[in-house]
């Protein structure tokens, strides 16, 4: 890993953003321009990768297959128009049973892949407009099913560079869907899975903008990841221009307090760099 190519401790990098090609509100050009305005040195455009028709029939959450080429072209054009910002072509790849061939085919051309889990027991778990899975199974079953799926994603042979918002199952914990048991065994298992499969994890500021009112992952889980020697990236999970780079500097401090000494940074050419936190 190359280290120190101009990335100081005060460098803002945002490794998780979405455009209007998936479930974001703005174009790639607008998102990269926002990164430039905010003084970010690097932005990764990570739209939700194409999903099978039965999971996203109207392509409301993911990039339609027919638009994949257009998206990559638009990201390249935005990078050329804003040379002060390094632009990384990536995708957020939702893991589901049997996804491997789809992910490999549809992610061609990307240099950075975020693995993520939103789909548990055949339903989306983070849709505020449809929480039937929580009502039908109960919070404990959803949390435990999420961890099963997350560990399966880590153990897959897909080349996920980092695992996005690791404890997304906390999405509604302040809205009546908290885990009813001691979550320590879940945290221990996730840290062991990430360590044993050599996966990085993401520190995400998105939960601070939601009812979670905290980072993903929660402090006890993040501390376990750090103690296990797991690498980490940072991202805002911005779906609109005003959230690009949001809270990243504070996320560095949060990660350092949990025990991390550096942030891993993907580069546009597929290489990796670091930002020292100490």
Overview of the molecule:
The chain has 278 residues and is α/β, with parallel strands linked by helices. The chain has a single domain, classed as Alpha-Beta Barrel (TIM Barrel). It is 31% helix and 18% strand. It has 8 helices and 11 strands. It has helices spanning 28-37, 68-81, 100-106, 132-137, 139-155, 184-196, 219-227, 248-258; strands at residues 13-17, 42-48, 86-94, 112-116, 119-120, 123-124, 162-163, 201-204, 232-235, 262-266, 272-276. The protein has a 5-stranded parallel sheet with strand order 1-2-3-4-7. It has a two-stranded antiparallel ribbon with strand order 5-6. A two-stranded parallel sheet has the order 8-9. A hairpin with a 5-residue loop joins strand 10 (262-266) and strand 11. It is globular.
């Amino acid at each position: 890993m190359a280290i120190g190519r101009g990335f100081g401790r005060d460098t803002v990098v945002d490794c998780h953003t979405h455009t209007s090609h998936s479930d974001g509100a703005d174009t790639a050009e607008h998102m990269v321009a926002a990164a430039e305005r905010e003084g970010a040195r690097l932005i990764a455009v990570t739209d939700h990768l194409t999903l099978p028709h039965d999971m996203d029939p109207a392509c409301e959450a993911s990039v339609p297959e027919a638009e994949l080429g257009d998206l990559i072209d638009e990201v390249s054009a935005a990078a050329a128009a804003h040379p002060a910002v390094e632009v990384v072509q990536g995708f957020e790849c939702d893991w589901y049973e049997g996804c491997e061939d789809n992910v490999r085919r549809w992610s061609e051309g990307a240099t950075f892949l975020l693995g993520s889990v939103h789909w548990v027991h055949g339903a989306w778990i983070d849709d505020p407009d449809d929480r039937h899975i929580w009502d039908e199974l109960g919070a404990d079953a959803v949390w435990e099913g999420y961890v099963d799926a997350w560990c399966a994603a880590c153990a897959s042979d897909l080349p996920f560079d980092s695992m996005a918002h690791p404890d997304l199952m906390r999405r509604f914990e302040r809205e009546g869907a908290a885990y009813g048991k001691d979550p320590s065994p879940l945290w221990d298992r996730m840290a062991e899975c990430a360590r044993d499969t050599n996966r990085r994890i993401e520190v995400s500021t998105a939960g601070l903008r939601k009812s979670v009112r905290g980072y993903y992952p929660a402090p006890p889980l993040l501390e376990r990841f750090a103690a296990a020697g797991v690498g980490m990236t940072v991202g805002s999970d911005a779906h609109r221009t005003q959230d690009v780079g949001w809270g990243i500097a504070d996320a560095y401090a949060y990660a350092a307090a949990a025990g991390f000494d550096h942030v891993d940074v993907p580069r546009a050419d597929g290489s990796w760099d670091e930002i020292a936190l100490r």
